[in-house]
Amino acid sequence: MTTEPVPSPPKKVRNFALLSNRAGAAFLTPAGLLVSVFVIVPFFWVIFVSFTNRTLLGRTALNPEFVGLANYFSLFDPATFFQRGQFGFSLILTTQFVLASALLGQALLGLLLAWLIQTVPPWVKRITETFVIAAWILPEVVIGFAWFAFLDRDQGTLNMLLEGFGLPPGDFLLQQPFWVIVVFNTWRGAAFSMMLFNSAFSSIPPSYFQAADVAGASSWQKFRDIGLPLIRGHIVTDLILITMWTFNTFTPFLLTNGGPSYRTELVSIYNYRVAFQDFQFGKGAAVGVIMMLINLAFALVYLSIGRKKKVR
Amino acid sequence: MKLTIPAFVGRIAFSALAALIGAIFALPLLWFLFAPFNARAELGLALPDPWTLNNFVTVFGNSYAVQALWNSFIQAAGGVILVGAAATLAAYALSRSSIPGKSAVTYILLLFSSVVSGSAAMVPIFLIISAAGLMDTHIAVILTFAGGLLPTAMFILRDFIDSIPKSYEESAMVAGASPVQAFFDVALPVIRPGIVVVVVWAFVNIWGSFLIPFILLRSDSNMPASVAIYSFYSEAGTPIVTLLAAYSLIYSLPVIALYLFVSWKFGFRFFGGIKA
Amino acid sequence: MASVEFKNVTKSFGEFKAVADVSFDIGDGEFVCLLGPSGCGKTTSLRMMAGLETPTSGQIFIGGQEVTHLHPKDRNIAMVFQDYALYPHMNLADNIAYPLKVRGEAVAARHGRAKEVADVLKIGHLMDRLPSQISGGQQQRTSLARALVYPAKVYLFDEPLSNLDAKLRLEARGFLNHLQRDMGMTAVYVTHDQAEAMALATRIAVMDHGHIVQFASPIEIYRRPATTFVANFVGNPPMNLVEAEGAQVDGKLALKAEGLTIAGLAMTDAIGKALATSNKLTLGVRPEHLGIAQTGAANTITAPLFANENMGPESLVTLDRGDSARVTARIFTDDHLDLSQVVTLGFSAEHVHLFDSTGKRIPALGE
Prior knowledge:
The structure holds 3 protein chains of 3 kinds.
Chain A: H1 21-49, H2 59-62, H3 70-75, H4 87-119, H5 122-137, H6 140-150, H7 157-164, H8 172-175, H9 177-202, H10 206-214, H11 219-230, H12 232-248, H13 253-256, H14 267-277, H15 281-311
Helix pairs in contact in A: 1-15, 4-9, 4-12, 5-9, 9-12, 12-15, 14-15
Chain B: H1 5-34, H2 54-61, H3 63-96, H4 102-115, H5 122-131, H6 138-162, H7 167-174, H8 179-208, H9 211-216, H10 225-228, H11 241-266
Chain C: E1 4-13, E2 16-26, E3 31-35, H1 42-50, E4 57-62, E5 65-66, E6 77-80, H2 92-102, H3 107-120, H4 136-148, E7 154-158, H5 166-183, E8 187-191, H6 194-200, E9 203-208, E10 211-216, H7 218-223, H8 228-233, E11 240-249, E12 252-256, E13 260-261, E14 265-266, H9 269-277, E15 280-285, E16 291-292, E17 300-310, E18 314-320, E19 326-332, E20 342-346, E21 353-355
Parallel strand pairs in C: 3-8, 3-9, 6-7, 7-8
Antiparallel strand pairs in C: 1-2, 1-4, 4-5, 9-10, 11-12, 11-15, 12-14, 13-17, 15-21, 16-20, 17-18, 17-20, 18-19
């Protein structure tokens, strides 16, 4: 072998990878295009449209005019802000909806269920899980109709049961529409929290709980002192995700149509009404922008937590 | 181990509570077990007398209803093929290549996908589809869902691929396989369970969704079942209960079947954010 | 078969230098073990030979041909992975025959060849099973079969036995030794198990922090460890190292340490040079060179007994010299030792290893 010190030309060292950069770029292209057009472009387009008076029909459908912040001013008009059917009312309603149905309803119920099914016999666990998950995976229109039948004033299963227990029946969709969609959304979404917490609990080594058993801890003490602290990270993840999903959900529309008289008009439904029933795209876009800003705040919190986890 | 009496009582209380919650969750769905088979079904819970399949016969005799199921299938299948193929390629690249800026791209995608929800972006999506001249076509629904579901699908799959040892492809290459051979012979078959999960997840999402086809489609001949189901209302706006119940059940069957398939095949392991 | 050469190879991951300016030459037909603790750079070195990592600088040659930037598939090498990397969707026949498939061989021919190799490895009867349906030992042999099924220039092993239990590991080790004698293959074998390296290698490269500390035959490494690191890494239990203060007294080397009684050791120029820099020396004696001795005799260590582990024919007797400085002897089992005793262990001067203050071996007379 010749060992002449040949001054090798400064070759660009390309590190070996299972997939070369060129192939990697090619692999990313289809997904990149689709996501760009249907996720990233809408993000910027909605901002642009929100500064115009674009409508679905008429003169401004084709030649929208730039109206500056007019759409935002009309959303935040202090004179009407809190009135029913206005943006402020809808935003406050949505906040209450998220607090009650996601943070309290889904998360607490999911946590309780996850803890319960750790200890119950397998067949109880399977049956309970099946119904909770069924509520979650069935198509939303089917669920909407099921609840419509369930809550029917004259024949619905709920009133039948109430009467069976000697309680007064009611037309809940008319009398308590807000609480109906809160219960509805809790019922619909508890499965996610249950499954997340269930997998979190199962990842705790059983010896932790056995050690507590040996020390004489009660079920509640085990939950409070071992289970809960060890799944803290999962709880935060769960709360952020279900908050975002509940904030954006459109499903209650299928049960109440946003009514009666706007009493269940969440921002997503408000957005739909403004854009596609009143045909004010500019104003609808402004609602979309505000929704995205709120989403962004939650997403940033979520991602920063995720990042910290990765670094650790 | 012998249980003490309080522990035993506790166990029973736990089981009873779990069963009670399960029963409450079942209540709104119970109606679906009976009404589709009842020729005189109303909104109340009643045992069919006699049990009959007449409602289903009527539904299948309704060409519009059948067409809608077929439309749902076209849209879900089309979306799933796009999502499955594009997400697999992209996730493989994110996991196995060392493209510069990979993590930044991942971060930005993750951010955008959580910020741009269907209900926040309905206006621009409508405008994009409209500008592209795709209004009231299957392809509009397919593309919109593909774009919207892709980021999540990519992340599920990337995590799945990350968890697969690189030594599979490495050993193939050391043995003489080209990167393309290693991808198709070794990587793809090993990733398949992850792809199946993502595909099922995407299918269920598109199949069950209401808002996007509701906005993007107009003509009856393109409507998926989720929208067409509202045709089972009388002129006065009251539901034709028998048909609605039967149709709902048919429409739900693929979802139930896929759920059973996934839980049989993979034990319904938990994948982060499996339903967006 | 072919030789392997590293020329000033460095591999950095960011700031971290996994392999730092390493050069060596592995001859045709040699079985070389890269031995060292985790993070020493041994696996990175192996992966650079395979082409699975690219050196930051330096060159790699296989059979005289430069392969530094060659794709793994073009190197004509074979590799056995620590996790076996058996393809879960292929049966054993397809797994073993896969290298032949990518070389374009027909199905019948490649399955025939796969069966031949599998028979040698006693897994020929399992050819239509999936990897998940066979035992760990059988999986290990399948991965070996996949490496042996085609004629490679060099065979690379990345801790191939570390996932086996102790008994299977011994069995597989014996088989690999036999295979090497049979085939005379050029092999590079990464392990952190010194016994494996001693048993298999024609030469061992002991690595630490990205450097090769010593590259020599097993017996040389055992007899003349180049540094305290090597001395401490090779041998089971490892060599006893006693830090002592050295001084030249009456033309002899005197060593002072707690519990140590030593007659003057022969002075050499090398010792003189070491003493000129620092009087801190390290005395090394292998456990098997220590025996029970008279208290106060020359060349002894005296300290309270810490543990007496009976292994059957022999016992490990450990003394505690304080500050967790321990000395272990491997002696014939002695029932009369009890834990309260102060014990004296003796050794002969010819078994003494000396290391200077930097941990480098001070050559003995005639080395």
